[in-house]
Amino acid sequence: MHHTQNNLIEIQDKIKSKIKKLQLFEYNPKIIAVSKTFQEQDILPLLKFEHCDFGENKVQEAINKWTELKKKYEKVKLHMLGKLQTNKVKFAVEIFDYIHSLDNLKLANKLANEISKKEKKIKIFIQINLEGEKQKSGIEPSELELFYKNCCQLKLNIIGTMCIPPESKDPSPYFKKLLELNQKIGLREISMGMTNDYLKALEYKSTFLRIGTGIFGKRTN
Ligand SMILES: *Cc1c(COP(=O)(O)O)cnc(C)c1O
């Protein structure tokens, strides 16, 4: 068996037993295999294993890697996890099925435009900046309700919220805050939890776990 398949199975088992321990019933979070920087030969074993959800953080890299693969593996859903520049939106809506990084109104407008032009059905998460750090991407929690309303007026299919907690800190308070914000505006999906904290994210009902290193191994670039 390929190491990525082994890793995925181990992660699935850990998730199952954690959910059992938490006694959360009918809770079935999705695993996004974050394949950024990895090539086709690393991804193919998971595709043959019928894994469907994959994540990338750059539009051009995703196009190069996934255009042919998606034709061959039609069930694949591709998730955009990185910062999305407005001049890349045209290309992003061609290749991605989910966008996790909607973080400003200009981008929302551009997305609405391209999505209706191309008649796509793209599912979108609003990225939240839980720290209030100026250099970080994301909508401020206090501005979320209004921003969400604006997105609805644009007819964007907003399914949830997303966060990336600061690396060196305990993620629990951030996960808790995101869950509360999500419930406050009445959204179903939550995108949080990565290799180092995905089990913790289950305690706060994350529905999309974004796992790279844990499945593919260390990234070299
Ligand atoms: C790279 C990346 C991940 C995966 O990180 P790992 O620690 O390798 O699991 C998750 N989310 C985002 C937004 C990323 O850019």
The helix-strand sequence is HEHEHEHEHEHEHEHEH
CATH superfamily: Alanine racemase
From the alpha-carbon coordinates, what is the Rg to the nearest angstrom? 17 Å
Helix content: 40-55%
Give an overview of the whole structure.
There is one protein chain. The protein is an alpha/beta fold and 221 residues long. The chain contains 9 helices and 8 strands. Strands 7-6-5-4-3-2-1-8 form an 8-stranded parallel beta sheet. Helix 4 (89-95) packs across helix 5 (105-118). Bound molecules: pyridoxal-5'-phosphate. Residues 34, 36, 57, 81-82, 164, 194-195, 210-214 line the site of pyridoxal-5'-phosphate (PLP). The site of pyridoxal-5'-phosphate has 13 residues, from strand 8 and helix 9.
Would you summarize the structure shown here?
The chain has 221 residues and is α/β, with parallel strands linked by helices. Helices cover 43% and strands 16% of the residues.
For the structure shown, list the relevant keywords:
single chain; 221 residues; alpha/beta; TIM Barrel; globular; binds pyridoxal-5'-phosphate
